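Job type: complex structure
Entries:
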Amino acid sequence: MGQALELVIASRTLAEHGVIDAYGHATVRSESDPQRYLMARNLAPELVTEPDILELDLDSRPVDAKGRALYQERFIHGEIYKARPDVMAIVHNHSPSVVPFACTGHALRPIFHMSAFVGLGVPSWDIRDAQAGSDMLVKTAYLGRHLAGCLGSHPAVLMRGHGSTVVAENLQRAVGRAIYLEMNARMQFQATLLAGPSGRIVFMDDAEVAANVSWQNYERSWNLWRTKALAKLEAERKGEATP
Amino acid sequence: MGQALELVIASRTLAEHGVIDAYGHATVRSESDPQRYLMARNLAPELVTEPDILELDLDSRPVDAKGRALYQERFIHGEIYKARPDVMAIVHNHSPSVVPFACTGHALRPIFHMSAFVGLGVPSWDIRDAQAGSDMLVKTAYLGRHLAGCLGSHPAVLMRGHGSTVVAENLQRAVGRAIYLEMNARMQFQATLLAGPSGRIVFMDDAEVAANVSWQNYERSWNLWRTKALAKLEAERKGEATP
Amino acid sequence: MGQALELVIASRTLAEHGVIDAYGHATVRSESDPQRYLMARNLAPELVTEPDILELDLDSRPVDAKGRALYQERFIHGEIYKARPDVMAIVHNHSPSVVPFACTGHALRPIFHMSAFVGLGVPSWDIRDAQAGSDMLVKTAYLGRHLAGCLGSHPAVLMRGHGSTVVAENLQRAVGRAIYLEMNARMQFQATLLAGPSGRIVFMDDAEVAANVSWQNYERSWNLWRTKALAKLEAERKGEATP
Amino acid sequence: MGQALELVIASRTLAEHGVIDAYGHATVRSESDPQRYLMARNLAPELVTEPDILELDLDSRPVDAKGRALYQERFIHGEIYKARPDVMAIVHNHSPSVVPFACTGHALRPIFHMSAFVGLGVPSWDIRDAQAGSDMLVKTAYLGRHLAGCLGSHPAVLMRGHGSTVVAENLQRAVGRAIYLEMNARMQFQATLLAGPSGRIVFMDDAEVAANVSWQNYERSWNLWRTKALAKLEAERKGEATP
């Protein structure tokens, strides 16, 4: 399957799971040229089809924009791909349960084995540390670099008042991590309230995290998501379904 | 696209997002006559089609009622349009996460960049300050004026035991604000519990609010909502979908 | 519209809103004989069609069972119809947000104008006060009478570890009340947490409750629910939709 | 109805209710050979059809794998069937509200009559007690036996950082219990917060639990779930629905 179609599937899956609404975006590094990445034109992810996928260089300039508008926050992706040669796919999103953690200084911890990657550390970034009085969007290379610096070698970074950015070695892992980051936040919120001020929560320990993360590619999920997205795309093509 | 069709799209989008159930209503000021506004006849928003759209003057009298029943709370709209020449669209709704804020004296604060307008101030109105023993509905010009007075120059006003009213310079912004007001309330509720009694929440500051609000028109969302609503309307016309 | 079809619409609407899953039931007192009431045979409410509607006397014996199994808890309905000549419709359900109130001794109070009837008082019934070691079901006339006694002249009664029973002067009002009882519980739960141990919540006062309850028939909602349910029934008949 | 089709219905019902996403699995002990059990090949439950059902022995080796990949955690099932001759069906799942209980040491208690079986005791298992530094998966016979030991004679066991495993004397009871275990956890979470640190919650007592559990087979639910699943399967076969 081509990378463009995979990116369509990823975009629609994230929308389907409520991880992305009209905003947020998934990208994948080009298999043929690691100095480029694929990203949809400026469009709500659940409307994306293959012809909407563009190629950008790592300075986030389109190779051929085909007259299409670009996402303003593409610099999140370009600058992370520059800083992290190991990263092959990125999801930026506003999943709702994550936001209350970043603005209260509560660190996400790995509470659920499907979210084990959280145990690799999820730092929290405040755009104010890079620029005072911003409109909160990462719309310059400078801000993208600053965010990438905070991400460091971690699998995800929270963005205060905004959402999160999740990275991985392949697209399906990035999508799975974005979905299960939200799930971890929901579970940790509930556990925090149950435990109370002096309460104790048993999180996954480092050895458990390492053992799980080493292989977790969300294969069975990806098979399900791909099956459903392809069926939906086919129905849209036949006019039997609407977006 | 005509204003009536835009209002149909707005009504259905608000229902789709759970911001409005059978109650609540969106209106838009007439482009051809700023002393008039467009509003559906008394009907659940998710059933509204173009022929249901009526024109009312700013005293909330229909220009031609066509024998149709009117929403009792139309005075919310007429009186705000009178008091606020800058306002071109209004959404009144009962989105569920907002109600617990108004009745506990917790002020909504801007916790999420998509809801930055909350930082312009969202006052809370108690109908008791205007009329004791009311049935809670804003069904007179007097109550509408009182509510408009509390709204002042702000983008939204909470209504104790009832819901909220959101205003904007155009319809898509009003719809976006209604949806993200609910989202802000959900996130702030969770952050408040996570932070605890003595906890600290980092909200957007005034400069961040100003920078974001200046351009935020929910363009990409509106494109998605319009696409989906038009497809649904077309399917209903063909008999391939039911309301 | 006949009472049987109205009851089908009510049953499906309650299922659609998550107020009833496979359990719970709506009934209506017969218009032609006030000593009888209409109730579906023992079937999940979202599967009910007109031929499933049976007539029972107030001792909850079927006039003609047509070989169909009956709901075990029909005595809830029969005994309330006996005790409350003003009651024309009853909904028994397990809506999830209500259960935590009954078992913690937190009284529901009217927090939302669509739920104003809560202000008429919603007592809480514990089946243990009638029978120790029961299986929690109201499956005898004795238990039905005991529950009716606790309900008294109120519009609803919570049932510890079980759910609630809601009554009204007509079917659409009973359905609306069941839906908005759940909504009130959700909002009051959130307000209680926001307010904290020593916090204050402004509920509707008695005059506001009286002014609202006097006319609230959920007319616009009922029109929406009926439109959607009839369209679904028609699609099922044509084989274009499945239950 | 054959056991394979029943297992398809169970799998899809669990997915439909959000109790299982792509992970988790239901199994049933073979009617013809109690030393064998039926389980789908390694596939997301909502995609399962009859040809995907395989037969395994109690050491969790497939009788004929037909070249299909197996679920890694099949040992949960095989080892419990060995240890518990009374158990005829098992559901392993990650339903989200259960996880915060296991990791905070809060025991689930029976708060809702549909979840009465919780009162038979739901122990909590920590995989660390069997193996340090695991990847959290029960993918060996040893781990399956250890889990079965913790389950003992109870109807369910929580798994720290993972989910739960639910057992019953027949498949529909196991499915019903998995769905209502999640519901019990949601209600108990809310009741715990409402009750506060020193608060009191009235749970079902032992006699009530015993009276309810003795007959509760979720018959009416199963009829609904089967009707809906069969209609969906038929529509998929005709190409009128996609997974």
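Summary: Chains A and C do not touch (no CB pair under 8 Å). Helices of chain A lie at 3-16, 74-83, 99-102, 141-151, 171-195, 206-213, 219-237.
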